[in-house]
Amino acid sequence: MPTPPSAFPVTKRALLAMAAGMTGLMVAPSVFAQDELHGTVDQGVIQPLPIAIDITSQADAQGNSLGAQISKVISADLERSGYFKPIDPNAFIDHEIDVNVQPSFDHWRTINAQYLSNGLAHVDADGRLTVDFRLWDVFGSNQLLGQSMTATPENWRRVAHKIADMIYEKLTGQEGYFDTRIVFVAESGKRGARVKRLAIMDQDGFGASYLTDGSLKVMTPRFSADSQLVAYMALSADSARIYIFNLETGRQESVGEVKGMAFAPRFSPDGSKLAFSVSQTGATNIYVMDLSSRRVTRLTSGAAINTSPSFSPDGSTIAFTSDRGGSPQIYLMNADGGNVRRITFGGGIYSTPVFSPKGDLIAFTKQSGGRFSIGVMKPDGSGEKLLTSSYLEEGPTWAPNGRYIMFFREPPGGSPSLWMVEASGRIERQVPYTGGASDPAWSPRLK
User: Fold this and answer.
1) pLDDT tens digits for 331-342?
2) Nearest to 163 by CA among 140, 125, 132
C-alpha cells in the first residue's frame, strides 16, 4: 500500500492550497389548510422516514414525464440527507392521484408510507411551468403543506430542489439546503500535470459548467454572502493572484496588485471585505482588503506561515492556521488582528478552519497518524470530534443550514472527489459528480 506524502509537503500544500439564480419563480400558498408539524431530528439512531413522492404530468411524444423527473430529483435530495427513505414508485397502489382530492390513505399505509407528497406539473399556454404539490401525513390523515410554484420550464430542477427543501423543513424542523450551488475546482489530467478549472454546479452534482478555461491553475474558490461573487486563487508559473468572478455578468477581475504570492481568499459576512494570505520573503501573513476602496490592512506579522482566514458569521472574529508555535495549528483573532489565541492542542497538524453558519462550530482538517480527517470543534477548541478519515481529505465547507459539511477526498494514485458528511458524522455520501473535483465551497440558499 502506498504511504501518504511526507508531513512537510502535505503541510505546505495544506497551508497554501487550503489557505445565476432562477428568474421568475413564484410560490403561492394553496387554498388548502396547512397544519403544522413540529418535527425534530432525533439525536439517537436515525430511522429514515418512509415517504412516497408522486408528481405527475402528461408525457411528451417520446414518453418522457416531467413529473417523474421532478419526483426523482426530490427523492434523491431527501434520500441523500439521510433522514428519508423514498419508496420505490413500483410499489405504489395508487398512481396519478388528483392533487386536489384527498388521497386514499389506506392505500399508502399498506406500503408503509408515513408521508406522501403528490402533485401535478404542467406547462401553461403562456409557456410557464406550474407545479402544484401537497404533503400529507398518511397515518395522521391530514395535509401538512400545499403550494403552487411557477417557473420557466428549463428551471424544473430548481423547482424540485425547492419542493425538497420545503418537505425537509416541515418534517425535520431544520432549514433546507437543496436549492444551493457548489463552486469547486474541476480537475482533469494526470497527477503533476492536472488542469484545474473553476466550475459550478447544483449541490446534487448536476448542471456543472466551467467558469475558467484552464490556462491557469485555480484553487480555493469561495462564495460571497449573496452567492453572486466567487473569489479564487489563480496560480501561474511565477505568480499567484486573487480574482473575483461575477456570476451574474460573467466578468472577472484581479483584486489588485499585491507584492508577493496571494492566496486563500475569503469574503467577510457582509461582502465588503476580502481576507487572504500573502507570502513574501519566507513569511506568510494575513491581510484584509476593503473592496470598495481597495485599501489593504495587514493583520498578522512575523516569520510564521499564517493562512486560511475564515470570518465568524458576525464578522467579529477570524479563525486561521499558523505554524508560529512550531507546527500548523488553529488560532483565533479579532477582525482587526488583535487578541490572538491558539485553540487546538489535541496533537497532530490542523488546517483549513471554517466557521459554521451559526458560529457554534468550526470545521477543520487534521493530519495525524499518516491519515487526514475532517472534524468539528467548538470555537474555544473544546469538543473536538473527527467525522471522517482517509488517506487524504481536506477542505471542509458548510451547508447553509450548518448541518452538513462537504469536502474532497483523494485516494492513493487516484483523482479527487467530493463528499458530504453530516455534522454528527452519522451520514456520509459521495457527491454524484463524475469528474475529478476538489476545493468545494457551498453557497447560501439561492433567492
Assistant:
1) 999 999 999 999
2) 132
